[in-house]
Amino acid sequence: MGGPAPMGAPGGPGGQGRPARRPGNALKVGLFAGLPLALVVGGLVGWLIGIAGAPGDLNPGAVQSEVTEVLRNDFGLSELEEVSCPDKIENTQGQSFQCTFDYGGQSQSVTVTISSGDGQLVVGAPAA
């Protein structure tokens, strides 16, 4: 009959019915599988928050939507009509620009400031 099974082999001394595995393989596989997924999710999130324009520029449509939402929800301008912001807005922290809008039959403006490098906006109170 052969001899005893080798150490770590199924049924052998120290064996537990399965072949020995190298520690860390699962981590390597997880990193290689997870990295492309993280890149795709990160790109999607960037697109959704409006930084999908040219590198360094904010998406003007997303900016207009954000300004419209703030004016309606935070300043109570529910009858707000057509918000217009510049077509090219460079994403530079501290930079300010003007958006115009129609409300109550009058054209008004609001100052918008980029508060962080990731494109967060601060919408000032509408000028009368």
From TrEMBL:
Protein's UniProt name: DUF4333 domain-containing protein
Alphabetical list of InterPro entries matching this protein: DUF4333
DUF4333 domain span: 43-119
Region span, Disordered: 1-22
Keyword field: Membrane, Transmembrane, Transmembrane helix
Superkingdom of origin: Bacteria
Classification via Pfam families: DUF4333
